[in-house]
Amino acid sequence: MVVATAKLTSKFQITIPAEVRRRLGLTAGDALTMSVEGEQVTLRALKGGWTEASHGLGAEMWREAGGARAIEAERESWD
């Protein structure tokens, strides 16, 4: 669902439209994360601190790496 559009400036900046800021509860100085999948960018507000807001980020990479197996292999390499 498209809520709003924004134009990229010559300095590669965008202004987050008022409707998007309102829906995300954003105010000046708030931190955001951006993730890219294919040609889609997802913008997330970092509410409640980094730990809470970043929950689930990188989950695809974790699954692709084999999760617990990757950690175990790394630990075994320490010997």
Q: Which labels suit this protein?
A:
79 residues; alpha+beta; 4 helices; elongated
Topology, element by element:
Layout: H1 18-24, E1 32-37, E2 40-45, H2 49-53, H3 59-65, H4 68-77
Which outline best applies?
A: elongated
Low-pLDDT residue spans: none
**Helical coverage, percent range:** 25-40%
Largest sheet: 2 strands, antiparallel
Helix/strand class: alpha+beta
Widest sheet, order of strands: 1-2
User: Can you give the mean pLDDT?
Assistant: 82
Give an overview of the whole structure.
The chain contains four helices and two strands. It is of the alpha+beta class and 79 residues long. The protein has one domain. The chain has a two-stranded antiparallel sheet with strand order 1-2. The longest helix has 10 residues. The model has no long low-confidence stretch (mean pLDDT 82).
Give a brief rundown of this model.
By secondary structure, this protein is an alpha+beta fold. 37% of the residues lie in helices and 15% in strands.
